[in-house]
Design goal:
The complex is a heterotrimer. Chain A is mainly α. In chain A, strands 1-2 form a two-stranded antiparallel sheet. By secondary structure, chain B is of the alpha/beta class. Chain B has a single domain, classed as P-loop containing nucleotide triphosphate hydrolases (Rossmann fold), CATH 3.40.50.300. Chain C has one domain: ABC transporter involved in vitamin B12 uptake, BtuC (Orthogonal Bundle), CATH 1.10.3470. Chain C contains 15 helices and 2 strands. Chain C is globular, with a radius of gyration of 19 Å. The chains are: A mainly alpha, B alpha/beta, C mainly alpha. Chains in contact: A-B, A-C, B-C. Chains A and C meet through helix 4, helix 10 and helix 12 of A and helix 5, helix 11 and helix 13 of C. The complex binds adenosine-5'-triphosphate (ATP) and magnesium ion (MG). Magnesium ion binds next to helix 1 of chain B.
Chain lengths: 301, 249, 317
């Protein structure tokens, strides 16, 4: 493989890792607080992507300036998180907290089935492509290779901002501290007067918005087709699993690893593109069999 | 005293900032009744967890019947003949009481034929008899989840006894039992243990029970034995009276 | 128990005579039974509190095994192809099981999903071997040495399937009542105590996994024969999700549940094809939620007229 290809693969991996980080950190956050692995998480990514793409295309059709696309991506992500995520939490998840794990899995799986079809109904099955924001930012040259500014700089920057922002939010703000308190000891936190129901709802919305943000960012770089949700779920689960529960920095590292691994694999065997998330996850779990939310604690008996 | 059946030697285990076992050692001779006493957090349960394979020590070793079992799983140690009941009963809550016992029986007998319903196990009567012995025969067909904590504790012990262990660890066997019934429960248990020549190590907070049913007492503090001796010596030991029993001299 | 036996017998009798009056239903009913078999396998795992989003793997593996053998004219005989296909899936489950029984809950579900999706991709991409997305045709084999016409073949296959389903259901019912079945439930309720009984939860789950793979494999082998065609779709996660749906819809309280669920599933599919062809998985999702929240014991719980819990103790039909 020529060195330029290697570099290209690495840059691709960085961009892709940034996206996966956004989705995975949302999944991990939700698991940490609610104790539920949200199988429908990939759908938030997909819906975020579609809504953002639709918004950007509408901007273009209305002849508005292209820079408006960037706030549109953010707004799309927040809207999806609040409306779709909020609805799912209030209508369904609320009813299964503390129930059998298998029940929670099946409920979020049902949500996944519903949202996958909902996308097809709302957005159709034709590919969506809204790359105006990416083109608008132009390209940069790295060692003789031209790469889009959007992927090389903007996407990693957003991921970094989310990483730093989340850390700050969880450690320095009172609501963030309340989330951490609920994660560590639900009962004690409730006794201290923290409204656990509100913490759950807002955490879920934040997590869902992060997934949607990942999708919104991705929408400018790739054409959207039905079914992107499933692969994303698997990849983000793999990242959350490697990193360990609630490990935000860990998720960043894991996402980067998986992003690089994936883009390398894509360069080697492009026809097996869809297979790669699954293979990565199998390898990860094979290597770390203890159940990966790494702080494995023996149950007190 | 006959031969040593279990020897725990200098066990260490640290959880984050807590040294839960800090040089814990104990020799158990066959047919002894050893009571472990000590304040909350002294590391009594941790010691049982280490001896039965649930936790692995960072250093030290456990020898049962001449065999090093330090690194074995609870499963393997159980099969060697070490039984255990839990501070918080560990039962199959959605099953009936008799189902809990019959599964223990099936495990002991290795009866895994998929064609024979467990309720029709050829030795099922033995389990009903065991239930009767601990005074819980009427609850046999009840779902465990519906029963009060005190009964669950007894069932938990009965499940351990169903395996016919040579040595049994019991973690606070009387803690859920009302004070008026404690002696009755302990009388029954002692009878069963005597009849089967089962050695027992039990954690106990009630000093009356200790005085009456133990023939040796180990005082736990800070993850190790601080004192040991006969119940008489220990319960009259001024330091123990102050720190553990909470009565000044 | 008596009520359950009567109910089971009624269900079998109804199934046995139905195709005689309405020949169009033969294939649909056979397909339902095949999916019921796979769902029965899911139900076994659900007893241990585990859910697999990837049993399409075993369903499709035996189906493709049958397709390859039939195409290669090896054992061009239905009564050979079915057990061999089933055994192939059993073998695969024996290998995959070594790996997956070490995991629980979401890890178990996702790993099964991942492995089945790898297989799905292989089926799609290795065009020269598998025929890619178009799949493979399965030439109609002989049946007990006889070259049947299409209708007789379908009818004969249906009755063989019905008998196999009854045998499988009876076996699973027995197994669930046996100590092994109780140990399986113990994985859901308390693995610690199971360990302290000297029992290996992994071994117990491994046995159940093997059984579930065999059941899905049996269903897949038969479906390849009756539909005369196999495609990668048999391995897709949506298919695996349908098995979970069927098991929950039917109820896991008794072995008749998955078959009831599978019959209902065919009815829903029939209506959905007319009224909601684009959104039919969404319909399934909504129904899944409705069952979980309003009828957690499933159809079986409703028909058997018992709460979910009490009948769970009985295990059988
Ligand atoms: N799995 C664990 N993880 C972290 N810390 C633990 C764990 N198990 C025990 N500890 C800690 O180790 C110390 C000893 O606990 P242990 O349960 O052995 O005490 P104990 O003597 O049985 O007390 P009690 O009388 O309250 O049952 C305690 O500080 C406890 O918090
Ligand atoms: Mg204790």
């Amino acid at each position: 493989m020529p060195p330029e290809m290697l570099l290209l693969a690495a840059l691709d991996g960085l961009a892709y890792g940034s996206l996966i980080f956004l989705v995975a950190v949302g999944l991990s956050l939700i698991f940490g607080v609610l104790g539920i692995v949200n199988v429908a998480h990939g759908s938030f990514y997909a819906i975020g992507a579609y809504v953002a793409a639709a918004g950007v295309l509408a901007l273009g059709a209305a002849g508005l300036p292209t820079w408006l696309a960037f706030p549109t991506l953010l707004i799309a992500a927040a809207l999806v998180g609040i409306l779709v995520g909020g609805l799912v939490e209030i209508a369904l998840l609320r009813r299964v907290y503390g129930k059998e794990e298998v029940l929670q899995l099946i409920v979020t799986f049902a949500v996944f089935m519903i949202l996958e079809d909902a996308q097809k109904v709302v957005f159709g099955v034709q590919p969506y492509f809204a790359n105006a924001p990416m083109n608008w930012l132009g390209t940069v040259e790295v060692f003789g290779i031209f790469y889009t500014t959007y992927q090389l700089i903007l996407m990693p920057l957003v991921a970094l901002a989310v990483l730093v922002g989340l850390r700050f939010f969880l450690r320095r703000t009172s609501f963030g501290r309340a989330i951490v308190a609920v994660t560590q000891d639900r009962e004690a936190a409730t006794a201290m007067g923290i409204d656990a129901a509100r913490v759950y709802l807002i955490t879920f919305i934040i997590g869902a918005s992060l997934a949607a943000l990942g999708g919104a960012l991705a929408s400018a770089t790739t054409s959207l087709t039905p079914g992107i949700g499933a692969g994303t779920l698997v990849l983000s689960f793999a990242v959350a699993a490697i990193a360990g529960l609630g490990r935000i920095e860990g998720a960043a590292v894991a996402a980067l690893l998986i992003g690089l691994g994936r883009s390398a694999a894509v360069y080697f065997a492009p026809e097996f593109d869809v297979l790669i998330p699954y293979l990565i996850m199998m390898v990860v779990l094979l290597v770390r069999p203890q159940g990966l939310f790494s702080t494995v604690q023996t149950r007190k008996v | 005293m006959s031969g040593v059946i279990l020897e725990a030697d200098d066990l260490h285990l640290r959880f984050g900032g807590v040294q839960a076992a800090n040089g814990a050692s104990l020799k158990v001779a066959a047919n002894e009744r050893i009571a472990i006493i000590g304040p909350n957090g002294a590391g009594k349960t941790t010691f049982i967890n280490l001896c039965t394979g649930y936790l692995k020590p960072q250093s030290g070793r456990v020898v049962f019947n001449g065999q090093d079992v330090t690194r074995l799983s609870p499963r393997a140690i159980t099969r060697l003949g070490v039984g255990r009941s839990f501070q918080i009963p560990q039962l199959f809550l959605d099953n009936t009481v008799i189902d809990n016992l019959l599964l223990a029986l099936s495990a002991r007998e290795g009866s895994w034929s998929p064609f024979t319903p467990m309720l029709r196990h050829p030795k099922a009567e033995e389990m009903w008899a065991l239930l009767d012995l601990v005074g819980l025969k009427e609850t046999g067909n009840r779902i465990v989840r519906e029963l009060p904590e005190g009964m669950r504790k007894l069932i938990d012990i009965a499940v351990a006894l169903a395996l016919e262990p040579k040595l049994i660890f019991m973690d606070e066997p009387t803690s859920g039992v009302s004070s008026t019934e404690k002696f009755q429960v302990m009388d029954t248990l002692t009878r069963v243990l005597d009849a089967r020549a089962t050695t027992a190590v039990f954690v106990e907070h009630d000093m009356d029970v200790v005085a009456r049913y133990a023939n040796r007492v180990a005082v736990w503090a800070g993850g190790r034995i601080a004192h040991q001796g006969t119940p008489e010596e220990i319960l009259n030991h001024p330091e123990v009276r102050e720190t553990v029993i909470g009565v000044g001299v | 128990m008596a009520r359950q036996l009567v109910f089971g017998a009624a269900l079998i009798a109804a199934l046995a005579v139905f195709p005689l009056f309405s020949p169009w239903s033969t294939v649909i009913l056979t397909v339902a039974l095949c999916e019921g078999l796979a769902a029965l396998g899911i139900m076994v795992l659900l007893r241990a509190g585990q859910v697999s989003f990837g049993h399409g793997l075993f369903f499709s593996f035996s189906a493709y095994a049958v397709a390859f053998m039939a195409a290669a004219k090896v054992g061009h005989e239905a009564l050979v192809l079915i057990p061999v296909g089933m055994a192939a899936s059993g073998l695969l489950a024996a290998i995959v099981g070594l790996f997956v029984v070490r995991y629980r809950a979401i890890f178990f579900g996702m790993l099964n999903l991942a492995i089945s999706m790898v297989f799905f991709s292989l089926l799609e991409k290795l065009f020269s071997i598998t025929g890619g997305a178009d799949g493979k045709r399965v030439p109609r084999p002989t049946f007990a040495g006889v070259e049947f016409g299409r209708e007789q073949f379908e009818l004969a296959t249906f009755y063989v399937t019905l008998v196999l389903c009854i045998l499988a259901a009876l076996f699973v019912a027995r197994y669930l009542l046996s100590p092994g079945g109780k140990a399986l439930e113990a994985i859901k309720s308390n693995e610690t105590r199971l360990e302290y009984l000297g029992v290996s939860p992994r071994k117990v789950l491994y046995g159940a996994y093997l059984l579930s793979g065999l059941l899905a494999g049996l269903g897949g082998a038969i479906i390849a024969l009756v539909s005369g065609h196999v495609t990668p779709e048999l391995a897709y996660w949506v298919r695996s999700g349908e098995f979970v749906f069927i098991a929950i819809l039917g109820g896991i309280g008794g072995v008749a549940g998955p078959f009831l669920g599978a019959l209902m599933f065919q009815i829903i599919r029939g209506y959905a094809a007319v009224y909601a062809p684009e959104t039919w998985h969404a319909v399934l999702g909504v129904m899944l939620l409705v069952i979980i929240f309003f009828a957690p014991a499933g159809l079986y719980g409703i028909v058997a007229g018992k709460g979910g819990k009490a009948q769970r103790e009985e295990g059988g039909r």
